[in-house]
Amino acid sequence: MNLTKPVVEQWYRDAAGEMFEVVAIDEQDQTIEIQYFDGSVTEMDFDSWNEQVFEGSIETAEAPEDWSGSVDVDSEDLERDFEDARPANWASSADGALRH
C-alpha cells in the first residue's frame, strides 16, 4: 500500500474534485491544515488523511494556474487601469520638507 503523505505547499484534489493545498502539518497534534482553492481553511487529523488516501479520495494535483480563487477580487477589477491618485500638492509638500 502506497499512502500519499501530506507535503506542505503541495496541491491535492479530493473526491468531490475540490483543489486544496497543505499549508501546515502539526506533528505533535497529528493534524494537517489545508486551504481550499476558494480560500477556506480547515484541519484534518492524520487518521482521516490516511483513510481518505487509502480510499482514493485524495490524490496529488498540479497547482492551479488561476491564482485568483482565494483572492477576494472581482473579475472586472483584474483588468482595470489604475490612475495616479496622488494629491496635486503632494510633490510640493515633500519638496518643502526636504529643504528644512
Radius of gyration: 23 Å
Largest beta-sheet characterization = 5 strands, antiparallel
Q: What percent of residues adopt helix (DSSP H or I)?
A: 10-25%
> Strand portion, in percent?
25-35%
Going by CATH, the architecture of the domain at 7-61 would be: Roll
CATH class of the domain at 7-61: Mainly Beta
User: What is the arithmetic mean of pLDDT?
Assistant: 80
Protein structure class: alpha+beta
Give the arrangement of secondary structure elements.
Elements: E1 11-13, E2 19-26, E3 31-36, E4 41-45, H1 46-55, E5 59-61, H2 75-78, H3 90-99
Antiparallel strand pairs: 1-2, 1-5, 2-3, 3-4
Index terms:
SH3 type barrels, 100 residues, globular, alpha+beta, 3 helices, five-stranded antiparallel β-sheet, single chain
Please tell me about this protein's structure.
- The chain contains 3 helices and 5 strands, in the order E-E-E-E-H-E-H-H.
- The chain has a domain at 7-61: Roll (SH3 type barrels), CATH 2.30.30.
- By secondary structure, the protein is of the alpha+beta class.
- The longest helix is centred in the middle third of the chain and has 10 residues, at 46-55.
- The chain is 24% helix and 25% strand.
